[in-house]
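User: Please fill in residues for this 333-position structure.
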C-alpha cells in the first residue's frame, strides 16, 4: 500500500521511509544501475521481484490438520494461469512484518500460530472463543481458485483452501441488529516487529457489511496450494474477499465482532480520501493518485508483457453485483 508522507503531504511509498538504511541503500543502488530508461526500469522491477521470491525457502507443509480439501473452482479463473507459489508466498503485504514486499517472507517466522483462538462476539446469540482446531472442524474445506487484486495495481491467481465465512456466521446466530462484521487481526509487539512503529494504527482492522460477509464467495481461509497457509500469507487463518481490493482480506484473524455500526478500518483511518469502507475492485473509479483500469499480473511481468484490464468487481460481477444495486460506487468507494 502506498500512503502519504507525514512530513509534507507529498506522496510516496512509505517503505522507503522505514526500510533499514543498509537494505534501502543497496536497493537504490540496484535500481540506479538497472533503471536506465523504460526498459531498464521494467527490468529492475522484474529482477527485484524475482530476487524477493527467492526468500521463500521453507514451505509449511501439507494440510494434515485440515479435512481433505475437495476442489471447487470459483470465479471463472480456470483459463488463467495460477500464480507460482514462490510469488504468492514471496511478494506480500503484511505490514506487521514490514512494508517492503519481501519483508513478510523474511520476518514472519516469528509469528506464533499455535495455540490460536478467535473470539466471536458482539451482536450474536452465541458468542464464543473458537480454537483453531474447532474452526478447522466446523465445515469441510474446499479449494477455490480466486484472483486477488491489490489496490496498488497488481494481481495474483491463487488456489485458496477454506470454507465460506457464512458457515461460521450461521453457527453463532447474529442478532437482527447486526449490520456489519468487524475483523480484528493479531497485533503482538513481541512477535511482529512493525507493530511498534506508527505505520498504521494497530491492530489491523477490516470490515464487511453483513450481506458481504454472508456471501458464499467470502472465504475463511486456512491454506493455499493444498498446504497450510504460510505465515506471511496470514496463518493460521485469514479472510479472502475476492471482489474487493486485497487489503480487505485481513490476515491472522483473532476477533470477529458483529456490530450495528460501520467499522472503522485501519486503512480508512490512515488515509480516508484514498481507502473507503467498500473498496470494491472497480476499473471506473480511480484511486485519487492512480488509475485502477489496468493491472500487472505477478509472474507475468517480463520486459514486454502487457498489463491486463481490471474487471469490474475483479471479475465476480455476476455473483456480487446485486449487493450494490442502486449504490453510487463513486461515493461508496
Ligand atoms: N492483513 C494484515 N493483518 N496486515 C496487512 O498489512 N495487508 C493487506 C491484506 N491483509 C494486510 C493484511 C493487503 S494490502 C493485501 S494486498 C493482502 O493482505 C495481501 O495478501 P497476500 O500477501 O497474501 O497476497
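Assistant: Residues filled in for all 333 positions:
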Amino acid at each position: 500500500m502506498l500512503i502519504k508522507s507525514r512530513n509534507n503531504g507529498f506522496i510516496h511509498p512509505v517503505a522507503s521511509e522505514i526500510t533499514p538504511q543498509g537494505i534501502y541503500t543497496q536497493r537504490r543502488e540496484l535500481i540506479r544501475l538497472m533503471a536506465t530508461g523504460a526498459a531498464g526500469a521494467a527490468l529492475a522491477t522484474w529482477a527485484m521481484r524475482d530476487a524477493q521470491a527467492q526468500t521463500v525457502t521453507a514451505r509449511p507443509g501439507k494440510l494434515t490438520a485440515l479435512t481433505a480439501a475437495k476442489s471447487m473452482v470459483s470465479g471463472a479463473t480456470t483459463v488463467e494461469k495460477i500464480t507460482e507459489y514462490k510469488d504468492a508466498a514471496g511478494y506480500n503485504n503484511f505490514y506487521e512484518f514490514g512494508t517492503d514486499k519481501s519483508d513478510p517472507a523474511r520476518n514472519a517466522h516469528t509469528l506464533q500460530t499455535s495455540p490460536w483462538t478467535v473470539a466471536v462476539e458482539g451482536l450474536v446469540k452465541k458468542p464464543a472463543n473458537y480454537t483453531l482446531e474447532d474452526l478447522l472442524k466446523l465445515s469441510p474445506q474446499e479449494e477455490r481458485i480466486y484472483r486477488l487484486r491489490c489496490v496498488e495495481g497488481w494481481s495474483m491467481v491463487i488456489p485458496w483452501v477454506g470454507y465460506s465465512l457464512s458457515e461460521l456466521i450461521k453457527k453463532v446466530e447474529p442478532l437482527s441488529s447486526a449490520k456489519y462484521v468487524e475483523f480484528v487481526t493479531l497485533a503482538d509487539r513481541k512477535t511482529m516487529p512493525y507493530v511498534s512503529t506508527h505505520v498504521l494504527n494497530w491492530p489491523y482492522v477490516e470490515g464487511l457489511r453483513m450481506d458481504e460477509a454472508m456471501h458464499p464467495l467470502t472465504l475463511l481461509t486456512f491454506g493455499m496450494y493444498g498446504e497450510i497457509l504460510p505465515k506471511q500469507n496470514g496463518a493460521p487463518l485469514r479472510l479472502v474477499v475476492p471482489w474487493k481490493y486485497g487489503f480487505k482480506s485481513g490476515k491472522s484473524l483473532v476477533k470477529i465482532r458483529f456490530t450495528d455500526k460501520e467499522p472503522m478500518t485501519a486503512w480508512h483511518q490512515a488515509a480516508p480520501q484514498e481507502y473507503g469502507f467498500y473498496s470494491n475492485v472497480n476499473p471506473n473509479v480511480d484511486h485519487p493518485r492512480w488509475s485502477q483500469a489496468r493491472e500487472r499480473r505477478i509472474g507475468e511481468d517480463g520486459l514486454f508483457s502487457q498489463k491486463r484490464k481490471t474487471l469490474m468487481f475483479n471479475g465476480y460481477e455476476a455473483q456480487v453485483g446485486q449487493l450494490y444495486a442502486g449504490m453510487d460506487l463513486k461515493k461508496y468507494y
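For context: The mean pLDDT is 84.
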